[in-house]
Amino acid sequence: MTFVFGMDGGASKSVSIVADTKGNVLSRVESGPSNYHNIGKEKAKEAIEHAVQRAIEASRTKIAEFEVACLGLAGMDSQTSYNVLYGIISDIKVFRKVMLLNDAEIGLGGATGCRHGIVVNAGTGAVAFGMNQRGEKGRSGGWGYLIGDEGSAYDVSRRALMAAAKAHDGRGEPTLLLPMIMEALSLGQFEQIIELLYHKEMSPEALASLAPVVFEAAQKRDKVSQEILECAGEELGLVAIAVARALGMESEECEVAPIGGMFRPHTLLYKSFARVLRKHAPDCRLIKPIFEPAVGAVLLALKEAGVEFTDLLMERIGQSLKGRVTTCGLKNGSIPCNSIL
Amino acid sequence: MTFVFGMDGGASKSVSIVADTKGNVLSRVESGPSNYHNIGKEKAKEAIEHAVQRAIEASRTKIAEFEVACLGLAGMDSQTSYNVLYGIISDIKVFRKVMLLNDAEIGLGGATGCRHGIVVNAGTGAVAFGMNQRGEKGRSGGWGYLIGDEGSAYDVSRRALMAAAKAHDGRGEPTLLLPMIMEALSLGQFEQIIELLYHKEMSPEALASLAPVVFEAAQKRDKVSQEILECAGEELGLVAIAVARALGMESEECEVAPIGGMFRPHTLLYKSFARVLRKHAPDCRLIKPIFEPAVGAVLLALKEAGVEFTDLLMERIGQSLKGRVTTCGLKNGSIPCNSIL
């Protein structure tokens, strides 16, 4: 029997899956972050090796080698990062063949079951990735928290802090964000935010964790928060549309899968995201992802191993995953983007 | 003879001045940065001690003690930072009495010759500080590069990088900023910006040094750059207005001094800044600063030492500074803010 390994290596956690080439998922384990941009090369290597070992152990199978390993890693965004990560991975001897992809690409693989379409991933960061019927690929966004990731949890949190600072100064409108952020961060005075941000060096992930406060304030009809979320939704719509245009998909029936923690249903963010799609790509359909990104990595590894994609194979993957995955639905419910508005 | 010491401790350099209580400036030296937020406590202490020593040497005077030392330090923005900096300064034994102020406050002292008014300082960061006729003080902005400093060189540079990334993705309008930034940073491909920003850890100061590129692109009629500068000017207008409102100065004749590298005359930034002032505080007048901030520190130290502010004193300071200061005019040319438009 031959095996494949799929991994979704993120900034806050990693998910690893071992499957055989018949589509039986043998294990799924979660482990620590593996984004080398944040934790460095050495720790990233350790994190990946640790994840592989745990996934093999959990599979209760004697695996000496994986036919194909597909790793979708956050931070795989340039030739330089590819070279760095390839150096890390080539030291791991259990992989016969390695595919190193950006995490957005495995996101698309999982969301659509390896079909063409566009995935928009909005978590701590934000990026869109697409593939058209001709197999051409494109991406947009994902330039990181300093100069991009518009619409991400980091971006929304940062805008919320700016709005709170402006309200504090009397420069901006009063907003619930000021007291709510102070409470969330246990600040007696808002000025203490400076100590927290610049001295205690709050990580981008820690800062991004303020996003739920913005959703909560918006629900309480805070106008400033509502505007931040609407703006974030528009930005996420724009990253999707940029990919659709680059791949000639904006005027065809195209599936768009929003994934990541920022796409909570029924929020202003979700609605303004859908509004931008409807305006610029009216024939696209918003889909609920079939599988989580780590399964996308497994599917891409199976494809690379020459395994034929039959209904039976997909069903077997879905069945053997049951009870292991909680984040995604297993049914592909496709809806036109304007039905949300 | 008794002496005072004034210092403008910034993020990129520091300026120290020694004067006697008759208003004779005995020395003016420039030295390295002293913002403890950036370089740490130990180095900040060393930097201040070094500056004091050099200023004494350059004065060619035997000075065992300063009657008053007034230090205006970037990063003096909360009780915590006051306590940290007070700990540093109290170890320096040549100061009989120490005044520790935010650098914006000495900026106002220098710009107006210790009179009431508002100073807006837009360099790497951006902050406004004001004092009304009743001696009440207020500030706005200056929350640092992560959540504030709107209108600063950092903010403008960051927006330029975001616009370049959007143009690269096809999300945003084409802009000259993309090729011009690539040239300024010697990037063969724009994707290399990720390596530069996140791995080589470009400092906020280094990132802020892209601001001149934006001014240049705007002069070449690049629409995206023009919008960034107009928006920056508006933000700087808002920090000034917030201070004016807080101090009840928006409906009285009030002098506003724009200082720092972002206020180049005849630019869109300057014009949109003046436009906001005219709209919200029509009786304010834009002034050219009389003295640089380090002289403001000296003036505040002299005031604290009980020295009377006569025309003779001010003239003596101006005369004895000649040839030492190049950054500011010595004449106070006041103009109504709407004459700029």
TrEMBL record, chains A, B:
InterPro entries, per this entry?
Answer: ATPase_BadF, ATPase_NBD, Euk-type_GlcNAc_Kinase
Species of the source = Candidatus Hakubella thermalkaliphila
Q: Which Pfam families match?
A: BcrAD_BadFG
The name under which this protein is listed is ATPase BadF/BadG/BcrA/BcrD type domain-containing protein
Under PANTHER family, the record lists: N-ACETYL-D-GLUCOSAMINE KINASE
Superkingdom in the source lineage: Bacteria
Q: Which residues form the ATPase BadF/BadG/BcrA/BcrD type domain?
A: 6-301
